[in-house]
Give the backbone structure.
Amino acid sequence: MSEKNPWQVLAQRPVYENKWITLTEYDVINPNGGKGIYGKVHFKNVAIGIIVLDEVQDTYLVGQYRFTIDEYSWEIPMGGGDADDPLGSAKRELLEETGLVASQWTQITKLHLSNSVTDEYGYIFLARGLEQRAATPEETEQLVVKKMSFEAAWQMAQQGAITDAISLVAIQKLKWMISQGKLDNNQAEA
Protein backbone atom coordinates (compact mmCIF):
# COMPACT_ATOMS: atom_id res chain seq x y z
CA MET A 1 0.00 0.00 0.00
CA SER A 2 1.44 3.34 -1.06
CA GLU A 3 1.59 6.28 1.34
CA LYS A 4 1.23 8.66 -1.62
CA ASN A 5 -1.86 10.93 -1.56
CA PRO A 6 -4.50 9.26 -3.80
CA TRP A 7 -6.90 12.24 -3.69
CA GLN A 8 -7.05 14.79 -6.51
CA VAL A 9 -8.44 18.26 -5.75
CA LEU A 10 -10.26 19.86 -8.69
CA ALA A 11 -11.50 23.00 -6.92
CA GLN A 12 -12.01 24.40 -3.46
CA ARG A 13 -14.18 27.12 -1.97
CA PRO A 14 -14.46 28.59 1.51
CA VAL A 15 -17.89 27.99 3.04
CA TYR A 16 -17.59 29.53 6.51
CA GLU A 17 -15.01 31.18 8.74
CA ASN A 18 -14.87 32.57 12.26
CA LYS A 19 -12.19 33.30 14.86
CA TRP A 20 -11.54 29.59 15.53
CA ILE A 21 -12.29 27.58 12.37
CA THR A 22 -12.53 27.64 8.59
CA LEU A 23 -14.81 25.28 6.66
CA THR A 24 -13.74 24.54 3.08
CA GLU A 25 -15.56 22.41 0.50
CA TYR A 26 -13.45 20.59 -2.08
CA ASP A 27 -14.44 19.10 -5.44
CA VAL A 28 -12.38 15.93 -5.59
CA ILE A 29 -11.61 12.76 -7.40
CA ASN A 30 -11.50 10.10 -4.70
CA PRO A 31 -8.93 7.28 -4.44
CA ASN A 32 -11.13 4.99 -6.60
CA GLY A 33 -11.53 7.58 -9.37
CA GLY A 34 -15.04 8.84 -8.54
CA LYS A 35 -15.94 12.52 -8.47
CA GLY A 36 -17.36 13.97 -5.29
CA ILE A 37 -17.11 16.62 -2.62
CA TYR A 38 -15.22 16.67 0.65
CA GLY A 39 -15.59 19.16 3.47
CA LYS A 40 -12.74 20.01 5.80
CA VAL A 41 -12.84 21.96 9.05
CA HIS A 42 -9.52 23.72 9.66
CA PHE A 43 -8.75 24.69 13.24
CA LYS A 44 -6.76 27.89 13.73
CA ASN A 45 -5.40 26.67 17.08
CA VAL A 46 -4.10 23.36 18.33
CA ALA A 47 -5.83 21.37 21.05
CA ILE A 48 -4.01 21.34 24.38
CA GLY A 49 -4.70 18.84 27.16
CA ILE A 50 -3.03 18.73 30.57
CA ILE A 51 -3.11 15.72 32.85
CA VAL A 52 -2.03 16.67 36.35
CA LEU A 53 -0.40 14.33 38.84
CA ASP A 54 0.66 15.47 42.30
CA GLU A 55 3.03 13.83 44.78
CA VAL A 56 0.32 11.46 46.13
CA GLN A 57 -0.99 10.61 42.64
CA ASP A 58 -4.04 12.86 42.79
CA THR A 59 -5.24 14.52 39.60
CA TYR A 60 -7.74 17.22 38.64
CA LEU A 61 -10.78 17.03 36.40
CA VAL A 62 -12.79 19.96 35.11
CA GLY A 63 -16.54 19.68 34.68
CA GLN A 64 -18.58 21.90 32.39
CA TYR A 65 -21.64 21.87 30.18
CA ARG A 66 -20.54 21.54 26.55
CA PHE A 67 -22.71 23.47 24.09
CA THR A 68 -21.72 21.33 21.10
CA ILE A 69 -22.84 18.01 22.56
CA ASP A 70 -25.58 19.43 24.83
CA GLU A 71 -24.21 17.45 27.80
CA TYR A 72 -22.20 17.93 30.95
CA SER A 73 -18.64 16.68 30.52
CA TRP A 74 -15.82 15.74 32.90
CA GLU A 75 -12.43 16.36 31.30
CA ILE A 76 -8.81 17.04 32.02
CA PRO A 77 -7.91 20.76 31.85
CA MET A 78 -7.74 21.70 28.16
CA GLY A 79 -8.22 24.38 25.57
CA GLY A 80 -6.99 25.85 22.34
CA GLY A 81 -3.41 26.94 21.98
CA ASP A 82 -0.71 28.38 19.79
CA ALA A 83 0.86 25.81 17.43
CA ASP A 84 4.21 27.61 17.82
CA ASP A 85 4.10 27.42 21.64
CA PRO A 86 2.03 24.45 22.82
CA LEU A 87 3.82 24.30 26.20
CA GLY A 88 3.17 27.97 26.90
CA SER A 89 -0.47 27.39 25.96
CA ALA A 90 -0.64 24.40 28.32
CA LYS A 91 0.72 26.49 31.19
CA ARG A 92 -1.88 29.20 30.49
CA GLU A 93 -4.78 26.73 30.27
CA LEU A 94 -3.82 24.95 33.49
CA LEU A 95 -3.66 28.21 35.43
CA GLU A 96 -6.82 29.57 33.80
CA GLU A 97 -8.98 26.52 34.51
CA THR A 98 -7.61 25.19 37.82
CA GLY A 99 -5.41 27.89 39.30
CA LEU A 100 -2.49 25.45 39.25
CA VAL A 101 1.07 26.27 38.25
CA ALA A 102 3.40 23.33 37.54
CA SER A 103 7.19 23.33 37.65
CA GLN A 104 7.58 20.01 35.77
CA TRP A 105 6.18 19.43 32.29
CA THR A 106 6.40 16.48 29.91
CA GLN A 107 4.74 16.19 26.50
CA ILE A 108 3.31 12.67 26.58
CA THR A 109 1.70 12.50 23.13
CA LYS A 110 0.54 14.29 19.99
CA LEU A 111 -2.77 13.24 18.46
CA HIS A 112 -5.18 13.97 15.62
CA LEU A 113 -8.83 14.53 16.50
CA SER A 114 -11.62 13.44 14.18
CA ASN A 115 -9.25 13.29 11.21
CA SER A 116 -11.96 12.27 8.76
CA VAL A 117 -13.40 15.80 8.75
CA THR A 118 -10.85 18.07 10.48
CA ASP A 119 -7.14 18.77 10.40
CA GLU A 120 -7.19 19.41 14.17
CA TYR A 121 -4.33 18.00 16.17
CA GLY A 122 -3.31 18.39 19.75
CA TYR A 123 -0.73 17.85 22.42
CA ILE A 124 -1.13 16.28 25.82
CA PHE A 125 1.19 17.31 28.63
CA LEU A 126 1.80 15.80 32.04
CA ALA A 127 2.09 18.53 34.70
CA ARG A 128 3.77 17.90 38.06
CA GLY A 129 5.36 19.95 40.85
CA LEU A 130 2.16 21.86 41.57
CA GLU A 131 1.44 25.16 43.32
CA GLN A 132 -2.10 26.45 43.85
CA ARG A 133 -3.04 29.98 42.75
CA ALA A 134 -6.31 31.59 41.66
CA ALA A 135 -8.14 30.25 38.60
CA THR A 136 -9.21 32.72 35.90
CA PRO A 137 -11.71 30.94 33.63
CA GLU A 138 -12.88 32.51 30.37
CA GLU A 139 -16.25 34.23 30.20
CA THR A 140 -17.69 31.22 28.31
CA GLU A 141 -16.61 28.75 31.00
CA GLN A 142 -18.59 27.82 34.08
CA LEU A 143 -16.24 25.23 35.54
CA VAL A 144 -16.27 22.83 38.45
CA VAL A 145 -12.77 21.66 39.40
CA LYS A 146 -12.55 18.31 41.15
CA LYS A 147 -9.41 16.92 42.80
CA MET A 148 -9.39 13.13 43.05
CA SER A 149 -7.07 10.16 43.02
CA PHE A 150 -5.75 9.29 39.59
CA GLU A 151 -7.21 5.81 40.14
CA ALA A 152 -10.70 7.35 40.60
CA ALA A 153 -10.28 9.26 37.31
CA TRP A 154 -9.14 6.01 35.65
CA GLN A 155 -12.28 4.30 36.95
CA MET A 156 -14.49 7.14 35.64
CA ALA A 157 -12.89 6.65 32.21
CA GLN A 158 -13.41 2.88 32.32
CA GLN A 159 -17.07 3.29 33.34
CA GLY A 160 -17.87 5.77 30.55
CA ALA A 161 -18.27 8.80 32.84
CA ILE A 162 -15.51 10.52 30.83
CA THR A 163 -16.16 10.60 27.08
CA ASP A 164 -13.87 13.40 25.86
CA ALA A 165 -11.24 11.93 23.50
CA ILE A 166 -8.28 14.02 24.71
CA SER A 167 -9.09 13.18 28.33
CA LEU A 168 -9.40 9.47 27.57
CA VAL A 169 -6.10 9.37 25.70
CA ALA A 170 -4.36 11.29 28.49
CA ILE A 171 -5.71 9.00 31.22
CA GLN A 172 -4.89 5.85 29.25
CA LYS A 173 -1.38 7.06 28.44
CA LEU A 174 -0.65 8.04 32.05
CA LYS A 175 -2.01 4.71 33.32
CA TRP A 176 0.30 2.93 30.87
CA MET A 177 3.28 5.07 31.93
CA ILE A 178 2.63 4.25 35.60
CA SER A 179 2.18 0.52 34.92
CA GLN A 180 5.38 0.37 32.86
CA GLY A 181 7.48 2.33 35.38
CA LYS A 182 7.92 5.10 32.81
CA LEU A 183 6.90 7.88 35.15
CA ASP A 184 10.10 9.81 35.72
CA ASN A 185 10.12 11.37 39.18
CA ASN A 186 12.72 13.87 37.99
CA GLN A 187 10.71 15.51 35.23
CA ALA A 188 12.35 18.41 33.42
CA GLU A 189 11.73 21.84 34.91
CA ALA A 190 9.80 24.04 32.53
